[in-house]
């Protein structure tokens, strides 16, 4: 069960690295604007905010990845704490998105599905 939880945590981390790429590196591109439903003007205006937000996503992914590596190396306690901190924060962010912008439910579910499964399976495996 731990391995399956870590696979989902890894998928969540990869998704958040992708989100980082869109928010911090390609925010004003037409493809990213289409994905986020923004106009060229909105993207330009919010570019610095998106850059910062993208790095939050990257840092959450890094925390999760470091936790996965720690568990793989036999440091279950610290690894689990890091995985739960990383993917738990991803899940919380998805919940905030859903609560604050119900019209973004699809994005919130996309952002939160892998972390939710990872948290549930990891907690079950550790109990």
TrEMBL record:
Residues annotated as transmembrane: 54-73, 80-101, 107-126
Record-given protein name: Epimerase
The keyword Transmembrane appears for this protein: yes
Domain of life where this protein originates: Bacteria
InterPro entries, sorted: DUF1304
Name of one Pfam family that matches: DUF1304
Keyword entries, A-Z: Membrane, Transmembrane, Transmembrane helix
């Amino acid at each position: 069960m731990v391995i399956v939880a870590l696979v989902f945590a890894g998928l969540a981390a990869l998704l958040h690295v992708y989100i980082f790429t869109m928010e911090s590196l390609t925010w004003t591109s037409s493809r990213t604007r289409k994905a986020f439903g923004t106009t060229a003007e909105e993207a330009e205006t919010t570019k610095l905010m998106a850059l910062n937000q993208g790095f939050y996503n990257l840092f959450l992914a890094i925390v999760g990845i470091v936790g996965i590596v720690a568990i793989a190396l036999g440091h279950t306690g610290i690894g689990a704490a890091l995985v739960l901190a990383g993917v738990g924060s991803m899940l919380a962010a998805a919940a905030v998105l859903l609560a604050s912008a119900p019209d973004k439910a699809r994005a919130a579910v996309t952002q939160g599905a892998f972390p939710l499964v990872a948290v549930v399976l990891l907690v079950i495996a550790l109990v």
